[in-house]
Amino acid sequence: MKRMILAVAALTLGLTNVASAEEITIVGPVTKIELKTGSADVTVKDSKTDKTAVVVVKDQQSLDKLSDKRISNGVDVRVKYDSATGIARVFKKEGGC
């Protein structure tokens, strides 16, 4: 009986999500860029909701594009980021004609 109770308790604890963060996708123009050493704070305005989000970009390829102005204010980007930390997992320039 003890083993069964312990197994159920362990299973319950294992299946619960402890403060899991949501991954959010935003498509819209860049409104502000703050370059720092090893990262950049980029403010993006969501085209659908008109809300702004500040995301932290840490990958070197995106930082290079921000520093040499290939991505600048007004450029449309697609961003996937963690809502709890604000760190961007995907930061891409929107393509198209």
Which strands sit side by side, in order, in the main sheet? 3-2-1-4-5
Radius of gyration: 19 Å
Say what the CATH topology is: OB fold (Dihydrolipoamide Acetyltransferase, E2P)
The dominant shape is elongated
CA distance, first residue to last residue = 67 Å
**β-strand amount:** 35-45%
Tally of separate helices:
2
> Taking all residues together, what is the mean pLDDT?
87
Whole-number count of domains: 1
Structural class: alpha+beta
Largest sheet: 5 strands, antiparallel
- The CATH architecture can be named as Beta Barrel
Unreliable residue stretches? none
- Within CATH, the superfamily carries the name Nucleic acid-binding proteins
Topology as H/E string?
A: HEEEHEE
> How many runs of DSSP E, i.e. beta strands?
5
Residues in helix, %: 10-25%
Per CATH, the class reads: Mainly Beta
Keywords: Signal
Organism: Trichlorobacter thiogenes
Protein name: DUF5666 domain-containing protein
Describe, in plain words, how this protein is organized in 3D.
The chain has a single domain (21-93), classed as Beta Barrel (OB fold (Dihydrolipoamide Acetyltransferase, E2P)), CATH 2.40.50. It has helices at 2-15, 60-67, and strands at residues 23-36, 39-45, 52-57, 76-82, 88-93. The protein has 97 residues and is an alpha+beta fold. The termini are far apart. It has a 5-stranded antiparallel sheet. It is built from 2 helices and 5 strands.
